User: Fold these one by one.
Assistant:
Number 1:
Amino acid sequence: MAPKRKKTAKKKTVAGRKPGTSRAAKHTPSKIAGRGTDPPRVRKILEKLDEAYPNATCPLHHRNPFELLIATILSAQSTDVRVNIVTPQLFEKYPNPKELAYANPKDIENEIRSTGFFRNKTKSIIGASKKIVEEFHGEVPRTMEELLTLPGVARKTANVVLGTGFGIASGIVVDTHVQRLSARLDLSKNTDPKRIERDLMQIIPQDRWILFSHQLIWHGRRICQARKPRCIECNLEPLCYSKDKTV
Ligand code: SF4
């Protein structure tokens, strides 16, 4: 009797594609990448961000923490370019918290109208200025707890002011870019900004928190854009296995 032949499984191939170029293969991360929040992978991401954006900083023009606070409130649902057009005249007319605190709301609305949501923003910047004058001796407070008591200020704005205005790393700014990139780079599985911030704070060294958020924001604006990320130009590509990748 002839010996039985061993059955050998045929490799399935996708029509029209060379072996190893299937969609799954395309998104397989490089071996150096590791997965998710693996510390060597996170270190590599930080190195790559440093290479690409060594001088990343806040694009909102300001001369002091108070101006930065007001500019950050104005930047909600607007662009930094638009805010930078509006603030020079605003700060010339209202150069300190006292001037802004007791300004006529209608005048402020007219000054900031082009940034959108101008009525609410007027309430916020007048309210925040009043509180700074009446409860904080005219000085922008330097703690997260105190900043969060100001009208119109949530964690994101407070982190911008503490980090960029005072150089205090008390958290990580999570805006829409940081939110999207944290998911694409698999640094957080959460969608809520507070939880994303908490996740990032656990894996990013504290002395990198301020620069890291600027770098992610720059990367999100320049390369890893929401609709069509420019992966071919991205130096993080070997470390990224996002399903949104375009290469
Ligand atoms: S640009 Fe592409 S490769 Fe780079 S981080 Fe974004 S999705 Fe990943």
Note: Residues 6-33 have pLDDT under 50 and may be disordered.
Number 2:
Amino acid sequence: MKLRVLIGCSLVVLGGAAPGHAEVTVIRAGHLIDTEAARVLAGQSILVRDGLIEAVAATLAVPAGARVVDLSDYWVLPGLIDAHTHLTIDSHNQDPLAELQHTAAERALGALPNARAVLLAGFTTVRDLGSYRALVDVALRDAINRGDVVGPRMFVAGAYITITGGAGAITGFAPDVTLPWDLRYGNANSPEEVRERVRALAGQRVDVIKMLATGAVLTHNSNPSGREATPQELGAGVDEARNFGLRVAVHAHGAEGIKAAIRAGAASIEHGTLMDDEGRMLMKQHGTYLVPTLEVRECVGANYAPEFVAKAEQIMSAQLANFRKAVNAAVKIGFGTDIGVCPFGHNAREFSLMVANGMTPMQAIQSATVVDAELLGMADRLGSITRGKLADLIAVHADPLADVRVLADVRFVMKQGAIYKQD
Ligand SMILES: [Zn+2]
């Protein structure tokens, strides 16, 4: 069954083949970016069957009944991955206190345009790192997977595991106010409580655990440079998550929190703003990924509380210099935007900042494809246009290796064989 919907000027085709009838597409790619070998191949054809890439070759016979998509004037890339999003955030009011004015249902329905904007911007997969109203992200992921909602494939955290009053908590209200369960679902104040929260989240089928090792910019009365979760709590979280086959992403701005998270076995350091030399060395030793979220700096402005703007100015002056040091030290760098702080769909702005601060365009594209696929534990399914992987493909009208800004203007989006956007 097929459902055709017009979104803006883009034709969106949802749904796959009728039962028992394979859906086959052949894509003629003028230029194909091989993210594994870091090269560009000219004049390739991609055979997609039932959502999987079946073959990639210069010459390829078109099977009878196949749909042919002519992208011979385009550069074709694997679907992009954003390893740090917040699709359930209210992009018009990111003050955590605003959560008290909205129900979980409002957050869920409010996330629908966010999810669609991110997919149509070429991001076919996201790792969504925290919903204030717990488990709204799980519901959104499942609705997208069912085909009820247009959006990227989501890997979700379910809630923030945070100290009470910490970076992932709702703060700034009087102490006699009792929060509803889903605004304190991830609160944990000892190693045992962290284990208990990880177990609860795993039981709710999350894909990743999100912990907070330092304060945050966008949380009231929270100091980004200061430590929050203790080394023991971080270690308990990583250990317990491992029991459930889950990896832990750790929010950390301050140098001490960063190092505690790396030593605890975090899969990735989110932001890593004030990372020092020892931190970079530990990242390399442990194989930890840095997800830098550089574009946030351009969006914390007039519409934010003065406290947030002041903190952003304080710590972000060091951010780009430390990012450049991480690039030079060959730390593994994933692509993540913290989107929701900046407008949904503007995810590709991150590429320009990465390239302006030391990465080559190919390295930046690799971070959003093969590197993020590894970070997600999905290297066998995502990140490159390779036989056997999911058919997540995008196209742009000019060479992104000559100018990465072109990635902000994605003209074609296919997720798992279904086309969501086409010129
Ligand atoms: Zn975030």
Note: The mean pLDDT is 93.
Number 3:
Amino acid sequence: MSIDMTKPLPETQPWTQAFWDGTREGKLLVQVCRQCQARIFAPRKRCPQCWSSDLGWIESAGRGTVYTFSTAYSGVEPKFTDELPYTIAYVDLAEGIRLMTRIVGCDPAELAIGMEVEVVFHDRDGFRLPYFRPAQNGNADE
Ligand SMILES: [Zn+2]
């Protein structure tokens, strides 16, 4: 029996396509309700606050803070052992949404709730996945 080493990819839907098109352009988009101004994540067909389908997008500055996180040091599926330690986090964006993501570029022992983080895109099989790393103060370019 062979082990499937293929890492999963997002399954796009018509209402998430703009989000993934945005990441391909290096933009982190946040869905916004044009009726009640609610910020929405994950993208939906209708506003969860007022049920309007009049939804649009704003571009996030890509900065936020760590709400909580968990790091796996072992015990993941074989397809992910090359990425250990593997940190999953909830990040609160400045634009008012909370998204589940990954933290990279950081020793997990240095990570803390409330830490400022910024988006960094990782290419995988035609997608650009929005991960986060500790915010680089000052010039964002490395
Ligand atoms: Zn609404």
Note: The chain has a mean pLDDT of 94.
